Predict the structure.
Amino acid sequence: MKTQLIIYISAFLLLFGCNKKLDVNPTQDVAEEFVFNNDANIKAALNGAYDAASNGYVLGGDLMLYSELLGADGEISWVGTYNEPREIFRKTILKTNGYVESSWSNSYKVINICNNILAHIALVDDADRDRVKGEALFLRGLMYFGMVEFFAKPYSAGNITTNPGLQLVTAPTVNGQITNANLVPRSSVKDTYDLILADLTAAKPLLSDEIGVYANKYAASAILSRVYLQMENFSGARDEANEVINDSGAELTGAYAGAFNNTNPSSEDIFVLPVTAQDGDNDMWLFWSTSDYGARDGDVEVNQAHLDLYSPSDARLALFWDVDGTYYSGKWKFQYRYLPQVRLAEMYLTRAECNYRLSTSVGATPEEDITTIRNRAGLGSISSPTLDDIILERHLELAHEGQRIHDIKRLRQSVEGFSYDAPRLVFPIPQREINAVGSNILVQNEGY
Amino acid sequence: MRKKILGYIGFVLLLLPTVVIGQTTVRGTITDAKSGNPIPNASIVVKSGSSGTASETDGKFTLQVSSLSVKLVFSALGYTTRELTASANMLVKLEPASAASLDEIVVVGYGTKIKKDLTGNIAKVKGSDVQHMPVVNLDQALQGRAAGVFVEGNSGKVGEGIKVLIRGASSISASNSPLYVVDGVPISTDSYSGNPLADINFNDIESFDILKDASAAAIYGSRAANGVVLITTKKGKAGKTNLQANFQYGINKPTHLRGFLNAKQYVDLIREAAINSDHLEGVDPLDPNQYEDSWLEFVEGRLTRYSGWSDWRTLQTNTDWQKLAFDDKARTANVDLSASGGTEKTKFYTSLAYVSQDGILVGNGLRRFSGRLNLDQTVSDKLKLGFNLSLSQTNMDQVSVDNEFTTPMQMVALAPITPLRDQDGKLYNRPVTTYGNPYVDYKEGHYRTTIYRNIGNVYAQLNFTPHFFFRSEFGLDIQNQNDDEFYGFNTTYGTGTNGYGQSSWFRGLDYNTNNFFSFQKTFNSVHDFDAVLGTSFQKYSTEWANVYGEQFPVESLQKLASAGLIKGGTSESNNSTFLSYFARANYKYKDKYLFSLSGRADGSSVFGANNRYGFFPAVSAGWILSEESFLGSSSIVSFLKLRGSWGLTGNADGFGNFAHLGLWGGSSYNGTGGLSPTQLANPDLKWEKSNQTDIGIDFGFLSNRISGEIDYYDRETKGLIYNVPVPGNTGYTTKTVNIGAMSNRGFEFVLNTENVRKKNFNWSTSINISINRNKITKLDGVQTMIPGNDGRYLNSLIVGESIGVFYGPKFAGVDPANGDALYYKQDGKTTTNDYNEAGNFIVGNPNPKMIAGLSSNIKYFGIDFSFLFQGVFGNKIQNGAGGFMSSSFDWFDNQTTDQLDRWQKPGDITNVPQLRIDGANGTGASSRYVYDGSYVRLKNITLGYTLPRKFTKMARISSLRVYVTAVNLLTFTKYPGWDPEVNTDYRADNRNQGSDFYSAPQVKNVSFGLNVGF
């Protein structure tokens, strides 16, 4: 009896010794402390930054969609059921618009990854350190640029030192701490552009010169040319565009249609996002194509007002397709097709415009560049093109590729009666952010 | 049989010495104290021993005992248990039990108690009360039966999630579900899809004991903050083998349908909406010159498209899409076979059951086969062994969650002018249907789930002395699940990709060991003392994998082997562990004064090393006044007890296994793996703790023919875990922190009456009423409000208000001048037609103020009649789909018939704004779509007839009963939607309550049954 008791009590007490069973580690995730401690992990995080950037809410289509919806001006219509894009199309955006909110937070997600990489850049092997640093800087600059174009008044609206830009965060978020670096007011438009320029110019010499799906020297130049164009720094824009045209090795595709719906980078893609069955979002296809191609319901229709801008023999016109007389963009017909972020054609148009404005002919004359673009579209040249000719060519060549509202704003045009600097062409700061940061720190945009 | 069983456990016998003791024979007869009739199949067991037997049909029994001084316990279903000292020849009279007998045995954690001696609050629901109710889930069967237990199905989808709240919600983002413990083993309530409680055949259940206050629940420590449901399965009794067979068959219908516009109304109203929108833009579309590019042209173009082959102008088609969403041939069939019996040493209960319930929605259904074997073996006076083992196979046909275009209920959004099929008989889909046609997904796709579930445990109990034993339990809960999905070429998921297929596999393994000592002794015949001390270890692990693909060559090849493109796949595993130490001591002095003390220390892997252990103590006391001399002789008061308890319980479930860590997970770009942040760290994360006080009175009057309980409780929960919004510029959107506090205070009132107690006529009634006030008392200390964060719903977290209150714009009706929807500005007086300028107000509370149940049982000779009314009062429901289905034709969704009352001309007084296509006239989430959700429902009603014994005897069966039973037969409510028992499944959580979004109404079932005993 006594021995039994002892046996059982011993067995019972044995259970007191199994504290180790409480040490359980995650199997799908890595704890933060184990991420930034070696070269391979930091490079994996860099790939993670690209993945985050290719999210539908960011470069995976929505930023392009927003630009086109804001700049619709009767040329396209949103006929889909989702409220959020509809609000953007109508310029009646709610502060709680979920798409706007997600584009904000997903852009900062990329920025935070980049900030983490930059903070630990010393751990990267010597051979790759510059490239990794350059790619992180490029992605950060690209994210801030993408955001400032929507969340702040355009550069062309002036008052750049007083108009609020973005919250500029360059320190990584570590160990769950929300610091004063996060609870910051918005910097001015000027300070925001300064950071973007600093990141992109610092990135450029560090990057590889191989164009394609990763950040590269010419992608940095191409984005810089866009930034300069927004700032109306035409010589800067011209020179960056010229460098891309001369040195990147990119060539216009033979046919205009060949620049889209590719399952590999095309010869004119300076920077392009891969979309495959395994990888990448394609929100352009999702909203611009139809249910026959697995997309939504042809939510963005192209109106006659747009089609009328083309001459009948324009190859770019032929790319549109219709269902019972309703036209859709042919650039975004299929799901698993690479999403061009910057094409070489844009560089010709930027160079042409800047040369024209500056009365220079760096690289080529405006007429030569416009001819290059028009010839590829199956059209003849225009002798001595005017600024309007160049702008129209840009409008048609880059139609529905996400440049529309930004061009309208920098060109000080109006859209649907809204002036280029109208508050309603600027997104609200998401209410979620104002709640989280505090309305005394984070100011809302005018008109919301 | 017995030999085999003994052989099976023979190895145990070899290991342990058996003790042979002297034997004496006891004989006797057991009779009904009122009628004098013999009681068959009554149980006679030796107290603090292990031998026992059951009475024969004439009430006689024979039992071997060690000596005549032992105490025997006599019990029978429907009678009060008696304890008598053995004698050679006994005549035992048992009193018929009152509706809720105070002598009834209540299961507590790691032991049992007599209800009279409880100091905590435990609600008991007998298995026999819910037996053969034609529902699938045991939690559905509990609805309305116990005070303080709120049960709400998300919708009428079969096998769907069901919310069970005991004394209100205690948590914002961790689990609010009670812990379920089956025969001592906590079972898993997680699954890959579907409701894991649907795997359990509740006809095998002897009792549900619901631990509500902290004193009762604290023995389950960190898992007990939401209460504990202890489920005890049936055991065999010595004596004749009792065979039961139950057959049941019935029809299922929705409780209610909504009215939607027919083709003519649809065409008339949407054209009106288009014309109105044109007029607002200064266009007269009826002028042929202005028709082009008008809204009317656009709408009529769409009408043509949506009409397919037919002509909308002549109303050729009038499809009732709502009707198509429901299966008008839905049936329920149940077969339940069981056998129980045994000898003094070996007792068994075994069952085999089949349940088939067609959902009321097309493509929804559940079939379950289950079997059980419970075996208890008395090896000797010293050793008892046994096991409980259940196996089940559940097959489900699932339908998509409520916000998917493919879910059948979303058919109501389609235009009535759209024909179901084209002229070749092919089902129409987009672009002819307004949205994806769910009927196509139903006909040309499937989502089949197969779940194998094995819940079992083995135990051994070693009696050192009659007062002191050690018990060891080992339990396993194994879930094995496969979800097989295929969607054909014409379905929403399969279009453009030549089909879509997905196969998912899930395995859950939950193992648990309990080892404890139990001591019980009466000293000097006035000091009753009992104590438990033990440890428990639980490990829960899950593993799942899936693969999905497209490009199927033909639609008949539906397995992924035929997919031309394997699009992706994944596998994951998760683990968590709990290590616990627990103790409890009860002391009773002179059957009057009761004291109890318990505590549990829990360690869990879910929390970081800094906050890994928590301690959860409880104390309670009771005073049985009716035992005092000043009340003891009262002829009116037969029982009166005051009790009070305080305790601390924890909540460690429902927010993931690694919420304290900063995590980076795998991602992929350009075919190369990457790391991306997935979660912000919080090394300080710890348990949520609930501090609960309960004061109660148990009473019995007139020989306990009137009895009941009144309780007041106050539960304060602190350290609430919530994903607090953080600045997006951190790269994250939320952080999991212990921020808040919440309180639940309430009253519970239970009254049981025996209205008639006669030989052949019994009538009893039970009423339970519970009032709960839930209040958030603190968020993060800075914010006092976390408003609703998605455009369609208003559920918010506000300090001083109940969890999930609706906070948002208040609808001010329609401007009689122009038909604009109006909202109150923040001043609450002036109105605006701009939704963005509307103020925000608390416009409703989704938490019920009161829940109640009223049940009654009548037995009159062979006839039995019972019913249960269940009520929920004072809660509000928001229709999140209002902006689509009752939206003044904002878009092409078919509208509810209330839209016929729209504003048409200046001066019209109505609550339905002017129809405007694409006009967003009143469609924003507001009080306009918030409704009273109170209801009273005839939850269950049963009428049965048991044939007289003389007939059944001739047929050589021991009993035969025929019955008709119905669930949800009548519902009384003002809610204009489908059904007031609703919370849309795709977003249901602690905060997101009382929301409707194309949710299926509950099932109304009427079944006929036949019950045979052999």
